[in-house]
Amino acid sequence: MKNIKSVIIAISLVLASMTIYACKKNSNSSGTIISTGAVSVTSVVQLRFSSAVSISTSGSGNTSSITLKSNGLPDHKTPYWGTGNALYEPFPSGHAPNANTSMIAQNLSMTIPSNPDEASSKEATSLGEIGMALNGVAIYNDREGGNIPLEAMTLTTFDNAGAHPAPSREYHYHTTGKYTSVDDAKLIGFLRDGYPIYGRKDTTGVYPTLDGYGGHFGPTQDFPNGIYHYHASNVNYLNSGFYILKAGSYYGNKGTFTN
Ligand SMILES: [Zn+2]
Ligand SMILES: [Zn+2]
After folding, report:
1. Which end of the chain has the lower number of beta carbons within 10 A, N or C?
2. Sequence ranges of the domains in the chain
3. Residue 78 pLDDT
4. E-only strand ranges, the chain
5. What is the DSSP letter of 10?
6. Residue pLDDT, tens place only, 182-211
7. Ligand 2 (single-atom ion) residues, CB below 5 Å
8. What is the full DSSP assignment across 78-125?
9. Whose CA is closest to 108, among 249, 253, 246, 256?
């Protein structure tokens, strides 16, 4: 009896250590083992976000956090600026606004971990802001009011950026587009769990194979030694020519986003 117990305990310990290993370590493309919480995104965040986003940090070491604030308005052309505005441009062919015809400044504040880490229990993204693009515009997932996937009719309210205003008149991106990323490896922004999101390609020019969260481990132009990162979906959504930025659950632990 005692021997069986010892064997069970030994097996349990081995399994437990394997689980921890599987959760916390991943290989980058060169085979180097990297720990998910080991990479700080702070310097890249400070370098890559536009001056329209104010950035502050709090805490120290790998438990510190970064807060990004913006008014959520785009720095590029869209019909939602309204005719007469210097940044006005027409809708894509066949597109038009629906009930939400204009956008107004918001008071966005996103706080993310400086060292994003894999969540032990993955949390689904929800309606509303799930991240922030480099220009301070909110990123939404693949859903609309009623928590239903974006429909063909809703897609016709998108501008060239794959964006439109919410009922709150908050402008937001659902997909890649003319001003963020078009079939490339550009950094688009960061999601609420602190992980960066890129266009459909990796820096090597290939379309990466993604996990169930829309990301993978590997080097990017900003993190040459590798980091977990998301990519926009490579699926032409409902044949619309738009590519969803992020669907499903966060890979990491979600920070806060207030408006
Ligand atoms: Zn929307
Ligand atoms: Zn990648």
Report:
1. N
2. 36-258
3. 97
4. 25-27, 33-35, 54-58, 65-70, 108-113, 131-133, 138-139, 143-144, 148-149, 163-165, 171-173, 187-191, 196-198, 215-218, 227-231, 256-258
5. H
6. 999 999 999 999 999 999 999 999 999 999
7. 202, 208, 218
8. -GGG-TTSTT--PPPTT----S--------EEEEEESS--B-SSPPBP
9. 256
> Per DSSP, what are the bridge partners of residue 252?
118
Q: State CA 69 to chain mean position distance.
A: 16
Closest CA to 59 of 111, 107, 24: 111
Q: How far is the CA of 179 from the centre of ligand 1 (A)?
A: 17
pLDDT digits (tens, 9 = 90+) for 75-101: 999 999 999 999 999 999 999 997 767
Q: Which ligand has the shortest distance to the CA of 222? A: 2
Whole-number pLDDT of residue 15: 44
Distance 208 CA to ligand 1 centre (A): 26
- The answer to whether the CB of 197 falls within 8 A of the CB of 189 is yes
Could you tell me if 191 and 130 are in contact, meaning their C-beta atoms sit under 8 angstroms apart?
A: yes
Which amino acid appears at position 8 of this protein?
I
219: tokens are: 């080097």
Distance CA 153, CA 98 (A): 9
